[in-house]
Each structure stands twice: as structure tokens, then as C-alpha cells.
Amino acid sequence: MGEHSASDREGVGSTPTSGPHTANPGYAVFQLAKALTTAGEHPDASTRKRAEEKAAKWVAIFSRMVDGTLSVGSRTPLADVPKWATLEVATGGFATGELLAGGPLLEHEKALASKHQLEVAEGDRTALNRFFLTDEGLSELHSLLESGKFDVSVPEEGALLVVAWLGSNGHGDQARNLLDAVAPYFGRLRFYPEPTERPRRFGSRVCVQDVTRTIRSLRSIKPNRAIAAQKEAIAVWAPLYDELVDLFLETMDGEPPKLQPETNSGSRQTAEGQAVVIGGWPCKVFPEMWTERATDLLRRFERLQQEHQLSSKPTHRKSSLAQLMPFLSRCVADPALLSGCEVGRIRLLLARYINKRGLPDSTRCRSLRGLQEQQAKTPIYNEVAGTVVARLFAYPGNEGIEDLAAVTEPISAEEASHCGLDAGSDLPDTIRRRIERCLTESVEVLVERGLIPSGDVLAEVLPQLTSGLRAAGIDDPQLRQLYAATYRAFRRRRSLLLLDLQSQVRIEELPWVAALESFRTDDLPAQQLARQTLEEVACLTLTSFPHAIVPNKLLQELRALAKGAGVELPLVDELAADIFMGEFSEKFVKTARLAAEFLDSTLYATYYGIDCEQIRQLPKPSRKRSRSWFYNTTPTLDAFADLCCKRAGVRYGGWDSAINGMIIEQQQVLTTQNLASLFSGLGLAETLRPQLSSMARHCFEWICRRQQINESLWHARLITMKNTAYAWRQMVFFLSFVGDAELTEFVAWAESHLSIQQPEFQVRFRPAMDGLVHAIGGCTPFGVDENLSDGRQFLGWSKSRHWLLA
After folding, report:
1. Helix residue spans in 510-608 (DSSP H)
2. Which pLDDT tens digit goes with each residue over 230-251?
3. What span, in angstroms and rounded, lies between the C-alpha atoms of 595 and 618?
4. Residues 627, 13: Cα–Cα separation, whole Å
């Protein structure tokens, strides 16, 4: 990538201090400015409101960073908050200072306080937490455990349930120790769950989002103003316009006016360019009760203008309706006030109406109006969404739906009256797609149906599956469900931005989860199930999204499954170039050694010029060196970081995102960014062998497609370059485990596929293709050399302008 590239946290950086590094407040200022711009300029009111709320959060973040009460970059960014507390985390991993188990009282908390007549101050939960330590409160907790009718939305909400279980099962000392850990925060956090009507289910079937989130998604659909205005024009203003024309026609002293038929020359105009009207003149005779009927029409017009403001028909200066209404008002007051020119204008407008539609009561006019009504029956999606929302209220909000037939059935006669569709009409595809996101099915089916379109979405749904597997080793059914619910809530926590190689808080660090660990055993059946699930998820991820590296969030779930399966599986996270500090933890070296052992003498090692023996001999990185090295002009790097720098042809120098990106990319090359760990640890090379060639083809097709998207923003083009290079690396890895015949067949296919791309892209991409062919022949292609006769390695990051950029 180019020298101006950066990740989504560009400018996060680190501020020099004598102690641990902290993030740069400038990033908060940047995010604040962006939110304020949206809040002030976006045309949509709801978007402006969300931007204002976001701006308020960034103001709080910046203020707390400046006054020292918020230390971004630490796993405990708030000095008076324990590491296990669930923090509100903004874009980039910045803690806002708010606690998700705190804040204003929720509705179920208010109901609890009212039911038991507890004196509760706003935001102070001391009385509520203490209630659950009384006999009555403990009885309620036991009832929730027995029925399973509770929900844990943040992990803290499971703490007092654990206390109740421990106390009733003869573990009073552990219950007291747990209370000692959480009681100091009784005023700030809720440690009790929300009661639900039905117990939460845990199993092998998952959903992308629950019913509550689906309802929220449907309600977010905004009306199409253009369609709504068209409907209003046809339903409200067209009938009134017809009635208005009919009133004026009643005042004619002769035949209704018409435009003169075209002459042989095709003209209907005079030499001066004026239309020629033939027939009688309006505003000459007034039938009985005409004034009363006209007055009534004027009143209705004023009322309808207040009620219906989408269409411009009643106000636009070129609208015949808007022009005729003032004439009608003056005619009702005193027809003599109308000048001859004004009567002529009325006559012309009436003639144009008749020429276009015929008389208001004519067959032709009724036919045209009927056709317009049919055309206006295009559904307004927000109205249809409202109908579907009413159907969804019949289902539990915190779960998905196993059978969507009743939710997606055609519109009924009763529903048709207020959703803009005829009875028996099918739901629009855009509405059905949103509904399908709450379908409960196997992960494989959801991926196949496109409801899980990426590894990131897969990571969001996997806790529904892994929570049950992690809890499988607990014999007590009540405790098993509680553990699973807490696990799912924990996995919803957003990751913090961490510096100095710190790790995210682990679930075992939650005091109430730690209290349960002694009751969970990883027995053989549970391990076998976790192992099977781990292999299935890994295979599904790689075959469904072969072009993408496994996202960090999904790696968390794979680690959890590996732990439950008793499998040692070194997995490394993707690092951000803008906060890289020139060092890699021991886990990266371990993963690189494993990859070197697994990839020796393969196409991958040849293509990237990897000396596998050199990697195997790498020493462990030292963690004893002083932080002062970071501020030296020539920092001392560990052996692995130094090797990555040499391979990238750069010298580490601090917060240069392009240089950092080049170093990190070489780490990804040497560790294969987890592919070698998954293939060797789970035996995927043999399992996926029949699919490796098609996976490689998918990568090549994806690269060609993405490289030819015309990105207008420079940063977006750099991101595309990075991601396509990562996909190329995955492709080379997959090709390293296919037979010679398949490899030859792939090259022929790739050449054919490249030949049908845009000519300009073929020229740009030729060095990459030649480099692959050269490596298949047994030689490493040039990475940075200007001699392109042997092709080039395709890498994503570059200090100078990337050779693949047009």
C-alpha cells in the first residue's frame, strides 16, 4: 500500500510517556469532527440525531483522555473500574467511560423496584442488588434458574444467579468470595438478569439476528418520498383537480374549450407562439348552489394542504391545480374581479385538461385515472414493514424463528387495507431478506443462503453455538444454561484498543465465571464434540470465504473451540499498522515455526522466498527490554521482527503506517496468518484437498473483480490493494497442496480468465501472473526489483506508489 495508507484507526498512534503508551487524543478529535459534520449537514433527521449522540460520546472520550481519567490503550482504561466490567466501546476500540451494565434504569428494573416498593435513585442500583440477597430475592433467582426464563445481555447480569446457585448447593464460602468481589460495585452495575416469558434455547442451530433486532431493522426502513408523493397526488389531488375543472366547466357560456387541432404544418400555435383555443368562455354563467359548492371545495383544499404535504401539485407554479385554485377563490368572491387575460388563462388551462384527458366524467378520463391508480399501487416498504412487525410480535424477542412461513405469507385482506398491497400479494424481496436474518438454522444453511456473507458475520453468530459446547462439561442443567447465557453475553463485548502487547480480558477473569470453572469438566464426549465443531467451522470458513483471512473476532471463537477440544492451535490476530510497536509476541514466532515446518519445499515457500530452516531456528522474543528503546532512533528489534524488516526491505522507525504495514505483511507471509496452523493442527490439507483448486479459483476471480472496481477515494484503493494481496497469498497457499496436474490446469484456467478482463488490467496484472508461473517453475519471483522479466511477488503494502495501481 502507498505511503498515505492506514487502517480504520489512522492517527491513533501513541503519545510518548515515561510509562506505558497511550493512544493519541487526536483520533478522538477526528471522529468528533466527522460526527459533527454529519450532524450538521445530513438531510435525514434520524441520521443527524445518531451523529449528535456519537459526537457527544467523542466529546466525553476526548475530555477524559485529556484530564487523565481515561487511559486508552490499557486493558483497564478507567482507574476506578475493574477489568471485568463491560465497557461501552466506540469505533477504533476507544472506551467511552460508560458501563453497559450501568446507566439509566431499564424498564424491567423499574418494574422490579415498583413491585417490591424499593427506593431507588436514578442510576443507583444498590437497593436492587441488595434485594436479591434477601430471602425473597434469592427465591426469585432460584425460580429463574429452575425455569430458565431469564436473559443475560451483559455478563454482569449473571453474577447474582451464580451466587444463588453456589449458596443453595453447599458452596457458601465461594458465594461469599464472589460477593466480596462484586459488592463494591452494587451502586453502579446490575448483577441480576432480565426475566423473560420463555427460556432461552441453546443448540446447534443459530440465527444472524434475533426477533427484536429484526423488528428494529424493519422499523428503520424509511418511506420512499417519491412514491409516497405519487400516491398522494393520485389519491388526494387528482380527484380534487377533476372536481375543480368540472366546477369551472359549469360556468361556460358555450362548448367546453379545446385546443385547436393541428394544421397541416403540425402547429397549434399562432405566429406569436400562443396556443389557439376554440369553444366557449368560462366564468360567464353560475348555476344554482355553484358558489356554495366552490366554497366547500376551497375549504377542503386548505384542509388537505395541511394534512398532505408530500406532493407539489397544490403549490408548484407550473401545476394547473395550483394555478386554478386562486382563480376559483376570486371567482367565489366576485367574478367581475377577473380580468380578460385571467379568464383567458382559465380557458387555456381547461382546454389543456380536456385535450389530455377528456371531460372529467368521460370514459377516457375515468380510464386514465384508473390506470394511474393501478400504477400507484407500488408498495411503500415502510408500510409493508409495519405489517410484518405486527406478525413478529407473536414470537420471543430474544430468539430467532425456526419456521418463517407464517411471517412471510402473502398479505391478508385485513392487512391489505393499510399496507398498500392487494390481498394475496407476496412480500417484497427487500422485506423478505430482512426477515430471513432471524431464521434459525444450521450455520451451513445460513452460509449457503447468503445470510452469513463473511467471516465477520460468522463470528457474530458462532457464540450461539460455542456457548452450548463450552457449557457441555457442566453436569447441572441450571448451571449449564447460566454458563451458556453468560458466555454468549461475554462474546458480544467489543474489543478494546490495546498497546504494549496486552491481551483482551478473558471470560475466565470474570469472578462469577471463575467461580464456575471448578464445576465444568472437559470430558471426552464434550471434547470430541468441540473438536468436530472446530473442524466443521474451520472448513466452512475457508471454503465459504477463501479469499479472506480469518477475522480476529472469529479467531476468538476458534480458540474457544480449540480449548474445549483440548487442541493446541496457535492462532495469531491481524495487527493494525497504525498501532504497531515494532515487536511480536512469542505466539507469532511459534506460529511461524509451525508454518515453516509445514511448508518446507512447497510452492508457498518458493513463491515468498522463505528460508524454512532459518525460521525454525528463530529464538523466542525477549520481554525484558526497557520501553526506552521505543524512543531511540535505532531501536533494537527481536529476531523475528528484524527478519520481517529485512524481508520487507525497510527499517522500523515508529509510527509510519506504510512501513509498519510492510513489516506486518511479512509476518503474515511467515505465519501464513493461521492457514498453516489450521491445516496442520486439524488435518485440513487432506479434508479440503478436493476443494482446494476451486478455492484458489475463487480467490483469483475475486482478485480480478475487486482490482477492477473504480474506487474514487485513494484510501479505498489502498485497502483494495491490501485485501487482494491477502487473497493472493491465500490462493498460493491452497495451490501448494494440489497435485501437479491440477496446478497446470489452474494456470491454464487463470490465463484464460485473465484474457477476458479489461485490457488495461491485463497489462497491470501480468507481472503478478508471471511471478506465480515463475515460482511454479521453482524460482522465487522478484518482490521489489525493477526487472520484471521473471514477474513479481504480489504484496499489498508499499512505501512508494504500488506497481499495480493504475
Report:
1. 511-514, 524-544, 552-565, 586-599, 603-607
2. 888 888 999 999 999 999 999 9
3. 13
4. 16
